[in-house]
Every structure is written in structure tokens, then in C-alpha cells.
Specification:
Blueprint lengths: L1 H36 L2 H23 L18 H6 L1 H13 L3 H16 L7 E3 L5 E3 H7 L8 H19 L4 E7 L2 H5 L5 H4 L8 H10 L4 E4 H8 L17 H19 L5 E9 L8 H4 L11 E9 L7 E5 L7 H7 L5 E5 L2 E3 L6 E2 L12 H6 L3 E7 L10 H8 L1
Parallel strand pairs: 3-4, 3-11, 7-8, 7-11
Antiparallel strand pairs: 1-2, 5-6, 8-9, 9-10
Length: 410
């Protein structure tokens, strides 16, 4: 009997264990089912898939609000029987759809913003991102650090010798020559440059250093905005460069313009009018303060306090004409004097375009396509002042052959 009781107890125990195991398994299954039903990753995946399918639909409404800067659309589809037969229709259709499907603009800006915010990367291969999300064009970093070689001292001295020859040449016609030097962003934001550029090290001497030394040994009149900024930056409390722009800030460009104006009044002997500026804070940037950021095609506006300005002009008794040749740093600096009426007539020649009236701009096929500009030499000869702007990064290629062109054709 004792043996029988022990056997029954074992059977009861086994049945009990089996029941408990079944009950536990049932509870685990129910728990697993509930977790799967409420699993956030699965829900987010489903939501993401729905959004992806909805993007083309929503794009019909959003594309007009999220335009892309610098993007070029494919040629409109022009399908024909012959294009189907020779297979070209497939290529043209693929090219068209890749740049014209609804929702593309929003998707591009979203993924660009993700890369910029999370990984500090840019889809624009010309842009490098440094500390504090400071944006740079790579060529300025290459020149500012010891990546690109300088022009030789002999080449820079030859440049100054040509300027000296040009000055004597145009002085015979009563024309005054001035050189206007503008800064590179790297000079005033070097501490924010990407770390891998700092590995290259800093140059012992720059083209700018050699250029200034050579100018000081000549009689050429020049205004060095770099030296002026260094002397004023403790008193003029605005960023020289914003993290979002490649050009100097509008505040400093206009502040320098007013000082350049005073310099020309003093040196030229002309009683020129004078421009001055008042500044105030602004949530919306002026274009050049935000130009590099805009080319990245992001969703979010930069979280930066920008500045706007008001210009005040006091007229003078003399209004000579002026011919200006240089790069984009002339904008918001030299241009301020031209638009204010300091000069009676002007020729503004920036990069590959020239105008004497902003509503009538003439473009050339290249920076040095001077033969494409009618009456270029005569326009220089009609001017009382020839002003040549050069950014310190471009000293080695100053004016893109314009000085040589004048020496050969004047």
C-alpha cells in the first residue's frame, strides 16, 4: 500500500507540474502576444512604411514649399515610338522620375537635415563642417591651412610689379588705382575648423603676408580690411563671419565699406559723399550671412541671431566715376557706395558679370573672357578711379588676368 501511495503522489505531482507548466506557457504566450501587439518598434516600422507610401501623395502639395537651391530638373519627357525601339525611352524616363517624383524635395531636405544635425555631414562635396556647425568652403580651408602651396615670393612680387606698372600707365590719363584686400573666413574662425585640417598645420607665411610686404615697398595705394578688422573687432561687437555664411557678415562688410569710403575721401582728394550705418538685430538673415547654409537644402532655419542695417548717406561735392573689378566680397561693401550715389557713374565687374545698371547685367562665358565685353578698355579710361578687390585666398590669381589684359590692351 505504501508503494501504491508513493506512486500516486508521484503521479499527482507530475500532473500538477504539468498543469503549472501549461498554465505558465499559456501566460507567456498571452504576454508575448500582448507585447507584439504593443511593440513600439513594430508600430514605428508600420508608420514609417505608411509615410513612405504617402510621400508621393503629400509631395503634390509640399514640393512648392520646399524648393531645392541649385537643383536642376531633367528635360521634360518626349517619348516616341523610335525612343521605345532604340531603348532611349528607359534612360530618359528614369532620369526624369529621379528628379521629378512628387515628394522628392521634402525627402532631400529631410535626409540632408538628418546628416547635418546628427552626423555633421553635407551632401554638398564643396562644404566642410567644423566645430559649432561652422560651415566652410573647402578651398578656403586648403589655403588657410598648410594643404595648398603658396604662390612663390617671386610670383607675388611680380604681381605687385604689374600693379605698379598699371598705376603709372593709367595715371597718365588721370585715373587713380586702389587695391582693396578682403579676408578669408578661416582667418577669423580657425579655432572652429574641422580637426582633420588642423592636422595639416598652419602656414609659417601666407600669400597675404608676402603681398602686404611687397605693397609696402611700392607706392601703390591699398586698403587692407584685415588690418582694419583686427584693429576694430574689440569695439565693433558683431561676428566677422557667421557659421552659416562663406562671406564676411553684412555688419562687417558695411562697416568696412564706410571706412573704405573715408579712406578714398582722404587719399583721392575728391570731396566724396560718405556712407554710415546703424545696426539692429534680426531673426531673418541677409542672404550673404546665410548663403552657405542655404545651399545645403535643409529643413530647419539656423538658430542664430542675425543683424540688419540702415544706411545713411551724406552727399559730397565731387562724384567721379569708378571701375571696380574683383570677387563676391565686393557685394555689401563696395556695392554700398555705388548704390548710395557716391559716384556719378560706375562699372561693377564681379567674377564673370559686369554692369553699370543693376537691371542690365552682362554675363561672360568665363572669368577671364574680357574680349566678350564691349568697350571694356574705354569704360576703364572713362573712370576717375580703378578699384581692384582681392580676397586673401585669391591673391595668387588676383583679378583673373584682368591686370595683364589692361597692360596688353590699354
Amino acid at each position: 500500500m505504501e508503494h501504491s501511495n508513493n506512486a500516486n503522489e508521484e503521479l499527482v505531482s507530475m500532473a500538477s507540474d504539468s498543469s503549472e507548466n501549461i498554465s505558465a506557457a499559456s501566460k507567456n504566450f498571452e504576454h508575448y502576444g500582448r507585447n507584439e501587439a504593443n511593440n513600439p518598434p513594430s508600430f514605428l516600422l508600420l508608420l514609417s512604411l505608411m509615410l513612405i507610401f504617402l510621400i508621393p501623395v503629400s509631395g503634390l502639395f509640399t514640393d512648392s514649399f520646399f524648393t531645392l537651391i541649385g537643383a536642376t530638373d531633367a528635360e521634360p519627357l518626349n517619348l516616341s515610338a523610335s525612343s521605345f525601339l532604340d531603348g532611349s525611352s528607359q534612360t530618359t524616363t528614369e532620369s526624369y522620375l529621379s528628379t521629378n517624383f512628387p515628394g522628392r524635395n521634402l525627402m532631400v531636405r529631410f535626409f540632408n537635415q538628418l546628416g547635418y544635425t546628427v552626423f555633421s555631414t553635407s551632401e554638398n562635396s564643396n562644404i566642410a563642417i567644423g566645430k559649432n556647425k561652422t560651415l566652410y568652403e573647402k578651398e578656403y580651408l586648403n589655403d588657410g591651412f598648410d594643404v595648398w602651396m603658396n604662390s612663390s615670393d617671386a610670383d607675388v612680387k611680380t604681381l605687385v610689379s604689374k600693379l605698379d606698372t598699371l598705376e603709372r600707365l593709367i595715371n597718365n590719363d588721370g585715373i587713380q588705382l586702389y587695391v582693396f584686400i578682403t579676408p578669408s573666413k578661416v582667418r577669423f574662425t580657425k579655432e572652429d575648423a574641422p580637426f582633420y585640417y588642423k592636422w595639416a598645420g598652419e602656414k609659417e607665411k601666407s600669400n597675404y603676408d608676402t603681398f602686404i610686404t611687397a605693397l609696402n615697398q611700392s607706392d601703390i595705394n591699398y586698403f587692407d580690411s584685415i588690418a582694419y578688422i583686427n584693429s576694430e573687432k574689440e569695439n565693433f561687437n558683431y561676428p566677422v563671419f557667421y557659421p552659416t555664411g562663406i562671406h564676411w557678415s553684412t555688419a562687417w562688410a558695411t562697416h568696412v565699406a564706410a571706412e573704405l569710403n573715408r579712406y578714398l575721401r582722404k587719399k583721392s582728394g575728391y570731396d566724396l559723399g560718405q556712407i554710415n550705418f546703424a545696426y539692429s538685430s534680426s531673426e531673418e538673415p541677409i542672404f550673404q550671412d546665410n548663403d552657405l547654409y542655404q545651399t545645403m537644402n535643409l529643413l530647419k532655419k539656423p538658430n542664430i541671431e542675425f543683424n540688419s542695417y540702415d544706411r545713411v548717406y551724406t552727399d559730397g561735392s565731387a562724384h567721379p566715376s569708378i571701375f571696380c573689378r574683383g570677387g563676391s566680397f565686393m557685394g555689401y561693401s563696395i556695392d554700398q557706395m555705388l548704390q548710395s550715389g557716391v559716384f556719378s557713374e560706375y562699372y561693377y565687374y564681379q567674377n564673370e558679370f559686369i554692369y553699370s545698371d543693376p537691371s542690365d547685367i552682362h554675363f561672360t562665358s568665363a572669368f577671364n573672357a574680357y574680349d566678350e565685353i564691349p568697350d571694356l578698355i574705354n569704360d576703364v579710361k572713362k573712370s576717375g578711379i580703378l578699384l581692384l578687390e582681392v580676397n586673401e585666398e585669391k591673391i595668387g590669381t588676383m583679378s583673373w588676368g584682368f591686370i595683364d589684359y589692361l597692360l596688353e590692351n590699354y
